[in-house]
Specification:
heterodimer, A: mainly alpha, 2 strands, globular, disordered C terminus, B: mainly alpha, 11 helices, 73% helix, transmembrane (chain A), membrane (chain A), ABC_transp_permease (chain A), LivM-like (chain A), transmembrane helix (chain A)
Chain lengths: 342, 288
């Protein structure tokens, strides 16, 4: 099997998936069900964006809520104070988040592993405290989006369907950026930084420079997701867009599906959001703690038994089956092995 | 007048700082021995608080009297956590390690909420209560006793690590795992011991503060970030460093809250974390 046919098969698969995603809300018309689909796409978009820095470049950020929050607050403030359309507001938010990522990454990337992860938690927590106590941003009260406008100019809709297509579009954009990075020389540098930092440095790859690229691209896309959240919910406060639980969820989606794999986070989002939503409805109110127990059990199981995520697990099964088929393909096996390494 | 207030602030900073130190020594011990950051450490403290609460509510045992029981119970919890989860992720990528202990954190919170409800609970009449007045400076007796207990436990841990065979073996494992194994030290046993002791320390801290701090399933979140700052400032793996850093963090938190505003005190402590990570990543007494 050549790489060419493998590639066209993948492209066909992706096309079919996209077509399915495009017609799905036409079959599922119940608003709460459509909302559920939107939540999955939002989760997938965050996960794919996180994967660029956390997966490809191997820099584990547990503070991505800071970018999400910058996106949500920027577009909302521009809309409520200047009456600027969120189409531009989201871009401004993305740019601000990317700049913040550069400022934050410059010192923090001197830290490795656990230290970097903890520094990112600290940055996000500090931001949450600052925003909570900021009068300008309405602090803990939160910000409401104007209720008197709707339509595509303001990205405010009465039905769920337009939101669905907006977030689907944003997800496709995020996947395309991620895919372009994966295939470009930048993607090779990212993997070199992750797997062999010393060798990469010896070959003249500027580690900090490429880590900064990864973080700022990831931040830009995460912030756009934050702007979408604000448009959909029509209300934001520090707890809903800046909390560390959001940072953790973003990373978890990627880890669950498969870190460093293009579509891993999409699969992760489908699994995580489904369990999150249904454990709540199945086991009653949030207060009982059952949803937390299920969520936690899942996290622990994946961490313990499948470090390369569900996609990695599927890859193992596939390889295992492939070995028993006539004409097993060694080069595909090798390629998968390289990808699996978390 | 202002000097009195300053002394008052410093005393409360010192008292809470010693508690932070006790929470952090367990965390730093675990990290030092096996390079794993335990996100569920605050939940060990929460379990310690509930152990005190139920000892009091069901058997009318005062939290102070129940402390040895709390320590034993949490030691068992720590060993069980190690044997069921941590043992399996020793060689896993860092991301899996972070998420395993992070999952434990949510699991323990969820279980506490499931069995004991999310309500805030208090222990009403304990043996130690009331205030002490030393000239112009006033502080609560429970806080004072808790701080004293924290010093005692940290001191005992230090003695254990430096004056007993088993403790030395644990220290040796922390310094060089392979060399320790070659000397005939059972690494797995040492790891389990570190988790047992670490959990017991956090549980004791919980038992000590149970007399004056509300008890609820998410109480650990108040302590875990601060404990991280203490561990980083003290130097990963250094018990003495964590003890000193705990006091420093307590003082900075209370002083910063007093000067800038109590709503910013956590932000001030977290900024300290960033400063330490950037200026001196190995902390006060950590290994280079």
């Amino acid at each position: 099997m050549t790489t060419g046919t493998n590639f066209s098969r993948k492209a066909a698969g992706t096309g079919a998936l996209l077509a399915l995603a495009a017609v799905l809300p036409l079959a599922i018309t119940e608003p709460s069900q459509q909302n559920f689909l939107i939540l999955i796409l939002m989760g997938a978009q965050m996960g794919v964006a996180w994967n660029i820095v956390g997966g490809y470049a191997g820099q584990v950020s547990l503070g991505h809520a800071v970018f999400y929050g910058i996106g949500a607050y920027t577009s909302t403030m521009l809309l409520t104070t200047l009456g600027l359309t969120p189409w531009i507001g989201a871009l401004v938010g993305g740019l601000l988040a990317a700049l913040f990522a550069l400022a934050m990454g410059w010192p923090c990337f001197r830290l490795k592993g656990h230290y970097f992860a903890m520094a990112t938690i600290a940055v996000a927590e500090i931001m949450q405290i600052l925003v909570t106590n900021s009068d300008f941003l309405e602090g803990a009260v939160g910000l409401y989006l104007p209720m008197d406008r709707s339509g595509w100019t303001w990205l405010i809709f009465l039905s769920k369907l337009p939101y669905y297509y907006v977030i689907l579009g944003l997800l496709v954009l995020t996947v395309l950026v991620s895919w372009a990075i994966e295939r470009s020389h930048i993607g090779y540098y990212f993997r070199a930084i992750k797997d062999e930092p010393e060798a990469a440095r010896a070959l003249g790859v500027s580690l900090t420079r490429y880590k900064l690229i990864a973080l700022s691209v990831s931040a830009f896309l995460t912030a756009m997701g934050g702007s979408f959240y604000a448009q959909k919910e029509m209300f934001i406060d520090p707890g809903s867009v800046l909390a560390t639980t959001i940072s953790i969820k973003i990373a978890l989606i990627a880890i669950l599906g498969g870190v460093g794999r293009l579509m891993g986070p999409v699969l992760g989002a489908v699994i995580l959001i489904t369990i999150e939503e249904y454990s709540r409805t199945l086991f009653g109110s949030t207060g009982s703690g059952t949803d937390m127990i299920i969520y936690a059990a899942m996290i622990i199981l994946v961490a313990v038994f499948s470090p390369s995520g569900v996609l990695g697990l599927l890859g193992d099964v596939h390889r295992h089956l492939g070995r028993h088929l006539p004409g097993a393909k060694p080069e595909a096996e090798k390629a998968e092995k390289m990808e699996v390494r978390p | 007048m202002t000097a009195d207030i300053l002394i008052q602030v410093l005393v409360s900073g010192l008292l809470i700082g010693l508690i932070y130190a006790l929470v952090a020594v367990g965390l730093t011990l675990i990290f030092g021995v096996m390079d794993i950051v335990n996100f569920a450490h605050g939940e060990f403290l929460m379990l310690g608080m509930y152990a005190s609460f139920w000892a009091f509510a069901l058997f009318a045992i005062d939290p102070i009297v129940a402390l040895p029981l709390t320590a034993l119970l949490l030691f068992a919890v720590g060993v069980i956590v190690y044997q069921t989860v941590i043992r399996r992720i020793l060689k896993a990528p860092m991301l899996s390690q972070i998420f395993a202990t992070f999952g434990l954190m949510i699991l323990l919170r969820g279980l506490a909420q499931f069995f004991w409800k999310p309500d805030h609970r208090l222990i009403p009449h304990s043996l130690v209560s009331g205030n002490i007045a030393l000239g112009p400076v006033q502080f609560g007796l429970p806080q004072f006793v808790a701080a004293l207990g924290a010093v005692g436990v940290t001191g005992a841990l230090w003695m254990f690590l430096h004056r007993t065979r088993l403790g030395t073996a644990l220290e040796a494992t922390a310094i060089d795992r392979e060399a320790a194994t070659l000397m005939g030290i059972d690494g797995q046993k040492m790891f389990a011991l570190a988790w047992g002791i670490g959990a017991a320390c956090a549980g004791l801290a919980g038992g000590l503060i149970a007399t004056f701090f509300p008890i609820f399933p998410e109480v650990g979140s108040n302590f875990i970030l601060i404990a991280f700052v203490v561990v980083v400032l003290g130097g990963f793996g250094s018990v003495t460093g964590a003890f000193l850093a705990g006091i420093i963090v307590g003082l900075i938190e209370v002083l910063g809250g007093f000067l800038i505003g109590p709503e910013y005190k956590t932000a001030i402590v977290l900024s300290l974390l960033l400063v330490v990570l950037l200026v001196r990543p190995r902390g006060l007494l950590g290994k280079a």
